[in-house]
Each structure stands twice: as structure tokens, then as C-alpha cells.
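Pasting two entries for a bug report.
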Amino acid sequence: MIRTTLTAAALAIAALAAPAQADSTKAYCMLTWDDTSKESIKGPCTFSQDGGNAYVDDFSFYKFAFSAEEQGKTYKRDNKESGISFRRKSQYTLGVYWYVP
């Protein structure tokens, strides 16, 4: 009985100490390069955001991180009902869609 109580207390304390995780969702991504000699990449991805920072993972072999502090400086974010796009001028545009377009 005491061992069970101690184990439950330890798990509760550990859960409180663990950092909050960002919510993530499956999405569909399209990466278009500004250099037209490179082909666009399309496919499933995982999108998450935490504290205004956005992350795209599991997209081909790419991972992207968009810091909230850098918005408007190194990239432009455009929120729409169908999804979100991230544009880095002279580099690429990454579209994240909630449904396959």
C-alpha cells in the first residue's frame, strides 16, 4: 500500500515537472523553391506550434522551425483557413495545408 502511494506520488510530481509539449497535427505540405531549377516537393508532414513558434517535421527529409521573434524579419507568415504559408524571400515558400489541396 505504501509502495503504491509513493509510486503514484512520484509519477504526479514528475508529470508536473515535465515541460508542456506543443500540439501537433498531421498536415499536407508543399515546398516551392524560388530557384525554378529545383522541383517542388509535396507530401504529408507534421505541423506543431508552441508559444508562437511553428515547426514542420516528417516532411520528406526536411524539418523547419519558424521562430516567432523572426516573423517579419527573416520570413513572412500568412494564415488562411486552408492552412499556413511561410515564405523566406529568395529561398522558398512552404505551404502547410490541413487537407490535401
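Entry 2 (this is the one that rendered wrong in the viewer):
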Amino acid sequence: MNKKSVFFSVLLSLLVFAAFAGGKKDVTDRSVGDKNSWQETFDINDKPSGKYNIMVTATDKAGNQTIAGPYNIKIDTESDLPVAGITNPVENMRIPGNLNIVGTCIDDDAVDHVNIIFDGDEDNVQTATGKEFWSFYLDTNNLKEGPHSIEVFGTDINGLRGHSVKLIWQLDRRAPVTTVTNIGMGTLVSGKINLDGTIQDGNGIRQLEYSLDGGQYFTKLKIKDEKLKEPDENGLTEYWSFTVPIDTHKSKDGPAVCWFKATDNAGSVGIYSFLYFIDNTSPDVKIVSPADEAVNGVFTIAGYAKDTIGIQRLSWKFGTESGDFDLIAGNPYWQKEVNAIGMAKSPEFSVTAVDTAGNVVTVKKTIKIDQEADKPVVKIMFPATDGTVEGTNGSLFLRGIASDDDGVVSVSYKVDNGISLF
């Protein structure tokens, strides 16, 4: 037999194909028959992972054998599973709105579909659009702010499910909400005050800062974690409280703003400005009239009360009497008519002004009373002193003047020891 015939007969001889597991009695022995060339497929789905080897034995018609191999192979059952991956979002990514989830899935037998589990809800598994390249659009409007989970796994055309991949992302549709709770916006303040308030955010608060210089410099504040008994309108039960001490004497009178900058755990920043009015200047109150002159009877006391922000109350006291002035917007002047008739001493008149910020000023003045000056004044015009008169028909003509600031009620005269009244 020449070499050509020998080689030909070897190719046509019975071929035995054997796969042996290293160190195990797991052997598959198969004959492929008389063929010029051959191929064979083995199902290894039920084979455990490990090292195997392949050996081919060829026998010619004369019984001569040739062995090829053994060739070592490694079976990895995991390598046949679909491999899914998430491209967007990434771990702990901040999402401020709706979310388009995208990813990939690969498998040597081809991918059939990709499933998504949101927040561990395995009873509502979603199916993504696409296979090797897949996506899912998530509307986040009805989701609570804070951390959420995405779990993804693929299934190949043979129904084999791959391992799932999972990540956490942060829904952060809203910035932190800061509110001052102890006083209202635009309140008038003076002296040392506190601004007490709260912050809310579904992702938790990382820090709170405040600024009293228009936001040029911020100072970090201590915040305290609090709990609500029931969820608020946004479904939140957690909030943080704070207190800002402010000495308004260090600022000018007028409008002032405290800026708050809150940062949540997702990195979102919320800015809040609180307006208040500083009024540390006391009202300007003066008694103008009477000046230093003495008065008597019924007279008028007048003056003014001014304040940059405004007067809230203006009251007076004279002797045992007291009362309030009616305030007229834009008119700082006041006056009060008093009665000093019968007063033996000089009484004290006081005016007290309270502005809208609570600043109080009291001005007092002692009123000089001259009761003698309050008596009527009588002058005899005729007859003149030491003058000579002639009676007419036994009568005497008298003429004079009587005056008084309170009005003359009657005049009486006496000639010698007699008394007559007009």
C-alpha cells in the first residue's frame, strides 16, 4: 500500500471522539463513522464548570491507530449567561427630572429580552425596549425624592436568565426648601433677634449656610434632624430645624436680608432670602408749646412725634388724666387742650411714643402755672384817681374795663361801704 492509499484509508477509517473530564469519570465516547472529513457537536449545558480534555483516535483498516490530543478545554457555565449592563444612570447619579435608562446586553446565543426591576418590586417587572442595546423611559413625577434602585437582567433565546446588575440613583427634582417660622416676611425688628426655621428635602440636608452681607460670605449653621407625626403634602416626614442669632445693632436701620443656602445630599442647592426691617432708632418726640412762659386756666400743649419707620402709639398724661392721641398718617404734630384751673402746683405733662419696632420714648415737661395771672383784670377809666366829679341828679357815673382770657361772668363795684353788681 503506497502512502497515498494509507492516508486515504485513515481518513475513511472509524473515528472515535472522546471528551474526558480531568480527574473525573465523566467520559463521552462517540463514533463519527467513515468520512473524509467530520465535525461533531457536544451539548455541555449539563456539564459542571471545570477542566476537560478532548482526544481523537483514528484507526485504519489494518488496525493501525493514531491519537490526536489530548487537548485541554475549560467549561465555564457562567460564560453562557447573558451579560447585562447599565450605561445611564451611573451609581449615585443625581437625576433632576425624568430618566431615560439605557444599557447593553450580550450573549453568544443572542438576547431575547431585557427586564428591569424598580425599587425591588419584583411583582412588577418591566421589559425594556431593545435587546443588545436597550432603553427604558421612566417618568419620575410620582416618585418620592431620594434614593431609588434599578436592577437589570437579560434572557437569551434559550430562556437562560443572566445575573442581574443593580445600582442606586438619587431623584432630586426639587431644591431644598427653607422657611423662617417665628416671624413673618417684612417684620420690623430691633436689638438682638433670632430667626428660627426649617428645611425640607427628600434627599436629606448636607449643610445649611447663611449670609448677612448679600451673599458675599456664608456661615455654616448647625441643623437638627426632626420628625413629623404625619407626612406633609409632599409625603415627607423628616425636616431639619435651625436658629440664626442676629444683632441688629451691627446693621443700619432700614431693610435687611438674610440669605440662606441649603445643600441636600444629592448636591442640589436651594437659595432662600428673608426680608426684615431694622429700626433701632427711637422716635423723636418734643413738647414745643408752651415754652418757658407761665400759663393758667385752660390752655393748649403742642408738639410733634417723628419716627423713620412709623409711630404705633402716642399717649399723654397730665396730672391725674391720661389718654391716647389719634394718629394721622404723614402728620407728626399733636396738641392737647388741658385745664389747670384750681391747680396749686405746677403739674407735669408727659408724652410717650412707641414705634412699630417697639422702641419707646417718653418726654416730660413741668408746666409753670401762674394762678394770679388767671384772675380777671379790671380797670376804672372814670373817674380818674384823685379826680373831682359832680353828681347829676344825685347819681355818680362810673366807667371801666373788665377782661379775662376765660371770659368775664360778672363785675361788682363798691362805693364806700356799699356793694352793687352790674
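Dev reply: Rendering is fixed now. As a check, the viewer should reflect this: Residues 376-421 form one domain.
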